Amino acid sequence: MKTKDIKELSVAEIEKKLRDTREQLLDLKLQKQTGQVEKTHEITAKRKLIARLETIRNEKIAAEKKSA
Predict the structure, then answer these.
(1) What are the tens digits of pLDDT across the range 9-47?
(2) Can you tell me which residues the record assigns to a coiled coil (predicted)?
(3) What is the pTM of this model?
(4) Contacts of 55 (CB under 8 A, 6+ apart)
């Protein structure tokens, strides 16, 4: 998911996406521990996506507080 796409989402949608991505990351980590994961680069990609989602969510929350 691109940054541009994330910025179009609402805060609630971003939080839902964050929860889903964190669950996927946990599953990938568990699969890696058992040796079932073939594409280990997906773990890094999920971590970066989580960071991107959190950053944009925090920006939106700060903008809401500033305008209120």
Answers:
(1) 999 999 999 999 999 999 999 999 999 988 999 999 999
(2) 4-66
(3) 0.91
(4) none
The pLDDT of residue 1:
84
Please state, as a whole number, how many other Cβ atoms lie within 10 Å of the Cβ of residue 48.
Answer: 10
The CA distance from 5 to 50, in Å, is 14
Q: Which domains, and CATH codes, for the chain? A: 3-67 (1.10.287)
Q: Which residues contact 28 (CB under 8 A, 6 or more apart)?
A: 37, 42, 43, 46
Amino acid letter for position 32: K
What is the reported pLDDT for 31?
95
In order, the DSSP letters of 32-66 are: HHTT--S-THHHHHHHHHHHHHHHHHHHHHHHHHH
